[in-house]
Write a structure and sequence with these properties.
This protein has 215 residues and is mainly beta. The protein has helices at residues 5-19, 56-59, 185-192, and strands at 29-30, 32-38, 43-49, 65-67, 77-82, 91-95, 102-108, 115-121, 125-131, 134-137, 139-140, 147-153, 160-166, 173-180, 198-199, 206-214.
Length: 215
């Protein structure tokens, strides 16, 4: 087999690339640590959100699998089980309404919450919604083919009202999620192992506490 000069050069380039570290201070790995707590089931997990293989220092510290772990999501994520710690969760209270097509609720977040999200099966509500008296959208999001999401950032501690345009007459299970920026100790331990060549992205490191509600 005779190789041309360009083919040899290309082969050498691939060989050298294989020896170079994949991440650097200028090109860090995207890796967010997320603690999720299902207060109904009393179960908790830490998610290591990265499109790439996890650093060995993290996988050596905990046993990670990769599967869908959140009840509203069908996206496989790196996850490991941790002990559930005591924690508060948001609440949802049904309010009186004169319109059978629109259901009203009051959501009370955990004080100091970064955001509150409500995930409702797509077949239960239309895309239109009202949040704190304003028109809003119960949109479909990446990673969930089954649910629509309504999210309120920096909610007031006293909570807010939402109105949903419902479909059908039978209530369905939905998920009410409170998101905070402070991680429990079990997640902080893994966060510290991330190292200097990995950084959180998008929503960053966070802790999510969720419960089942009827919509």
């Amino acid at each position: 087999i005779v190789l041309t000069g360009s083919a040899v050069a290309l082969g050498l380039a691939f060989a050298m690339a294989a020896l170079v570290a994949p991440y650097s201070a200028n090109r860090p790995q995207h890796l967010s640590i997320v603690h999720v707590h299902d207060v109904d089931a009393g179960e908790a997990h830490v998610l290591a959100r990265s499109p790439d293989p996890l650093p060995s220092r993290i996988t050596q510290a905990a046993s990670f699998g990769k599967s869908p772990i959140l009840p509203w999501s069908d996206e496989a994520e790196h996850n490991t089980t941790v002990a559930a710690e005591a924690g508060e969760a948001p609440t949802l209270t049904a309010l009186a309404t004169t319109d059978s097509k629109w259901h009203r609720y009051h959501i009370t977040p955990v004080p100091g919450s970064r955001a509150v999200a409500l995930w409702v099966p797509k077949g239960r509500i239309a895309e239109r919604a009202r949040v704190a008296g304003r028109e809003a959208r119960a949109g479909a999001t990446r990673g969930s083919s089954t649910h629509r999401r309504i999210i309120f950032f920096a909610p007031p501690d006293e909570g807010f009202d939402i109105e949903l345009e419902v479909i059908g007459h039978e209530p369905q299970d939905a998920w009410l999620v409170d998101v905070r920026g402070t991680l429990p100790e079990s997640a902080q331990r893994l966060m510290k192992l991330r190292g200097d060549l990995a950084v959180p992205v998008h929503s960053g490191d966070s802790a999510a506490t969720y419960r089942r509600v009827g919509i």
